[in-house]
Specification:
two-stranded antiparallel ribbon, nine-stranded mixed sheet, 8 helices, single chain, Carbamate kinase, globular, alpha/beta, 35% helix
């Protein structure tokens, strides 16, 4: 349920770092994201981050052109590492202490992922960025976010979407009658085939009773408010808090 969180995992898509750019990383946007994360750290909230790589590379999409899927996915993991380093730099410039851990060994720029070390960093008030997904092809960064959140005992998974302010009954760009959910259960999201995240990640969250908050990264102070447990976007939990759908 929503409420004051002690430790949370923030999932940022690669597109969240683009701002208005068609590709790559926008420095101003990344700084705004970093400022909100650092503000939450100042409120004694422990924050871990998983960042995607879609602003540079999408393995599944590239594989459709004929590239070997596993190779394409490994290239995508490298894209997430670039984003993680950019976010690390932005966080440090606004005053946060950061540790980046990767699922692929790259000792020159980041620590390897070690669960107990990650938890210790969080306990010391450091932001921990998890890069390179799970280190395995065919696994999305959504799955990596769910896995890491469960592994390091987070109380919620915060999904900051690019251009989507919650979970809808249908694609609002295609269906004018689509309604946004305020709350729903993991099982409802799976049964209704709502495109929140991939089914593997959603099932992991359901089995481990991990709440998910889905909101638009462009929401004013949205990341800070979501990390605090304020009411933004859509809440997916084991049990809904109230009527699941409201008209827009």
């Amino acid at each position: 349920m929503r409420g004051r969180y002690r430790r949370v995992l923030l999932k940022l898509s690669g597109e969240a770092l683009m701002g208005d750019r068609p590709f790559g990383i926008d420095a101003r946007t990344t700084k705004l994201l970093a400022t909100q994360i650092c503000r939450a750290i100042g409120d004694d909230i422990q924050v871990a981050v998983v960042v995607g790589g879609g602003n540079f590379w999408r393995g599944a999409t590239v594989a459709e052109t004929g590239m070997d899927r596993a190779t394409a996915d490994y290239a995508g993991m490298l894209a997430t590492i670039m984003n993680a380093l950019a976010l690390q730099d932005a966080l440090e410039k606004v005053g946060c202490i950061v540790r980046t851990q990767t699922a692929l060994p790259i000792a020159q720029v980041a620590e390897p992922y070690i669960r107990r070390r990650a938890i210790r960093h969080l306990e010391k008030g450091r932001v921990v960025i998890f890069a390179a997904g799970t280190g395995n092809p065919y696994m999305t960064t959504d799955t990596a976010a769910a896995l890491r959140a469960i592994e390091v005992d987070c109380e919620a998974l915060i999904m900051a979407k690019h251009g989507v302010d919650g979970v809808y009954t249908a694609d609002p760009a295609l269906d004018a009658s689509a309604r946004r959910y305020d709350e729903l259960t993991h099982l409802e999201a799976i049964q209704r085939r709502l495109k929140v995240m991939d089914i593997t990640a959603l099932s992991m969250c359901m089995e481990n009773h991990l709440p998910i908050i889905v909101f638009d990264v462009a929401t004013p102070d949205g990341i800070y408010r979501a990390l605090r447990g304020d009411h933004v976007g859509t809440l997916i939990a084991s049990q809904p808090e109230s009527e699941p759908v409201r008209n827009i």
